[in-house]
From TrEMBL:
Alphabetical keyword list: Hydrolase
Amidohydrolase domain sequence ranges: 104-596
Cited InterPro entries: Amidohydro_3, Metal-dep_hydrolase_composite, Metal_Hydrolase, YtcJ-like
Official protein name in the record: Amidohydrolase
């Protein structure tokens, strides 16, 4: 046999001959074993023959955090066919898994973890940011005054091809709590940007928006318009004329009418841009909470076309969609098809605490302008309506996500689930409390008894912690916001989330906020609710996988699970806690394949 050396020092001819010989030899052995034991099928024999050539890849040379209490760390991990096939010492894994086709991936001192599982966000809404003006305050955006908001919108209108094509301008994520004026802009202030183009700016909570006069006219909102149930049209001094601010169901009723009707190509590009943001933050499973009907038709089409790299799990807006046929289609499944599935439905019980529309049992510390001192927010639905929707989900065995921020809304949720479980006991449907920011200590045992999984929101401690103390709830109540420590003390699993696009899906900010609970001003809000870094990592990996009924295949580096992985710049269990926010996602791996790599510096 002639040997011709290649740049790697191997002969291509020798390698081809070796591979063929190895396959023939191993196949012969396996066929012989099959003939004697009759225990392997031909497909299994071929698979095992190929396995003798080694795993697809072996990761080594850095810290490996498995999130598996039975084997917390390892020296190496082997991946084959998109799954984890070995976890252990480097010597053992090289001996049993390294072959001629194996890629040896040196972590070079970096840290390998399970891929992050998004516990709650609005995946497709994050894509909307690509076609709207960025009104975020510092450190994520440029808007901290109404004048700055106006300037950003003027520049956006002048340059945006979306505005040119569709004749409407949308700004996303202004925050009255961070504006110098400490109030929402008015329709007149948006009119100063343009009286000819309809303008809508969306509050960072996603529960309020402001329209200029042109947009109000287009939506037929006038002094004669009546507040919808679970919503409010804010008025001017005459208590009749709309001032431009729409809350909750008043806002939800018009927001999709105002958003530009994008072409199919624009929609696909927007959603893929959203996915890229999550992948860059280490998420290998992404949630689309409260998916509307139009989007729920687009996502399966993208899946069929092979558009997704991450797993996209959707929860439909049950109050908007009811018993729509798509919720009875094959997409409603515990299994992904081309990285997409509908996992259940979502119901919203109240609004936003920072927007002062969440439903409390006690009044807001500082009530919104024009409200009585007793103002404590309001419900999105009556008890009867909430029970109707939850019963529909239960009858169809759909998992239910329940948005409830204020303690009164959580009381309503507990009452609803108690009634439903009394009527239909037994089955684990794993209902989820989304946000639970003002969850009271006395409500936690009820959640545990009812099997309601808490997905909490400690990122609020950074973004709005000071606002909660000074304006929303006062210092005492704010200390217990998103009580991860109290839930953990009850022995309960929980997850933490970004609620993107309400906050940017920054995985390291998510980790940092749960561990440190530091506000923008540097105050530690609820010191006794802080959790250890390992607990926070579980709340970003294994526990949200459990939340989605996916704990058997995701959330930890264990034999047989999907090779969904993330590589960080350093070990979050070893760095100073104050420096967790500085960690970087260097690479994201989905089922053994790199789907994101940070640019080299």
């Amino acid at each position: 046999m002639k040997i011709e050396k290649t740049s790697t020092g191997f002969s291509t001819l020798f390698y081809a001959g070796f591979r063929k010989t190895a396959l023939l030899a191993s196949s012969a052995i396996l066929i012989s074993a099959c003939a004697s034991t009759n225990s392997l099928t031909p497909a299994q024999s071929a698979e095992n023959a190929l396995a003798l050539l080694g795993a697809d890849s072996i990761y080594f040379g850095g810290d490996i955090i498995t999130i598996n209490d039975a084997q917390p760390s390892a020296e190496a991990v082997a991946v084959n066919g998109g799954k984890i096939v070995a976890v252990g010492t480097r010597a053992e894994i090289e001996k049993t898994q390294r072959g001629s086709k194996t890629k040896m991936i040196d972590l070079a001192g970096k840290t390998l973890l399970p891929g992050f599982v998004d516990a709650h966000s609005h995946f497709t809404a994050v894509g909307m940011q690509a076609s709207s003006a960025n009104l975020l305050p510092l450190p994520d955006g440029p808007v901290n005054t109404i004048a700055q908001l106006q300037q950003v919108m003027r520049e956006f209108i002048a340059k945006s091809p979306v505005v040119k094509a569709h004749g409407v301008a949308v700004g996303f994520n202004y925050d009255d709590s961070q504006l110098k004026e400490r109030r929402h802009p008015t329709r007149q202030e948006l009119d100063a940007i343009s009286k000819d183009i309809p303008i809508m700016v969306i509050h960072q909570s996603g529960h309020l928006g402001v329209l200029n006069s042109k947009a109000l006219a287009n939506m037929k909102i006038t002094a004669k318009s009546v507040n919808p149930a679970g919503g409010m049209i804010r008025r001017e001094a005459d208590r009749k004329t709309p001032n431009g601010v729409l809350e909750e169901n008043a806002f939800f009723g018009i927001v999709y009418k105002m958003v530009p009707a994008l072409t199919a190509a624009e929609t696909v590009a927007q959603i893929q841009a959203s996915e890229a943001i999550y992948l860059a933050n280490g998420f290998t499973t992404i949630q689309d909470g409260k998916t509307d009907l139009a989007t729920l038709k687009a996502l399966p089409e993208m899946a069929v076309a092979g558009s997704f790299k991450a797993d996209i799990v959707s929860y439909a807006d049950i109050a908007a969609m009811g018993d729509d046929p798509i919720l009875h289609s094959s997409w409603m499944s515990s299994n992904y098809r081309n990285h997409f599935r509908i996992a259940g439905v979502k119901l919203t019980y109240d609004g936003s605490p920072q927007g002062k529309t969440a439903w409390f049992t006690e009044p807001y510390f500082k009530v919104p302008a024009g409200q009585k001192k007793s103002y404590a927010g309001y419900a999105a639905f009556s008890d009867a309506e909430a029970l109707k929707w939850y019963t529909l989900a239960t009858q169809n065995n759909w998992q239910m996500l329940n948005h409830a921020n204020g303690d009164a809304a959580i009381d309503q949720l507990i009452k609803t689930v108690t009634a439903v479980q009394t009527a239909a006991p037994g089955k684990d449907r794993r209902g989820v409390l989304i946000h639970g920011q003002y969850l009271r200590a006395d409500q936690i045992p009820a959640l545990q008894r009812l099997g309601i999984f808490p997905s909490l929101y400690p990122m609020h401690t950074f973004y709005w912690g000071d606002w909660h103390r000074e304006s929303v709830a006062g210092a005492k109540r704010a200390e217990f916001i998103s009580p991860t420590g109290a839930v953990l003390a009850r022995g309960m699993k929980f997850s933490i989330h970004s609620d993107a696009p309400v906050t940017f899906p920054n995985s390291m900010r998510l980790l940092d906020s749960a561990v440190n609970r530091t506000t923008r001003s540097g105050y530690v809000l609820g010191a006794d609710q802080r959790v250890e870094p390992l607990v926070a990592l579980k709340a970003m990996t294994l526990w949200p996988a459990y939340q989605h009924f996916e704990e058997a295949s995701k959330g930890s580096i264990e034999l047989g699970k999907l090779a969904d992985l993330v590589i960080l710049s350093a070990n979050p269990l070893k760095v100073e806690r104050a420096k967790l926010i500085d960690l970087k996602v260097l690479e994201t791996i989905k089922e053994g394949q790199p789907v994101y790599r940070a640019a080299a510096k």
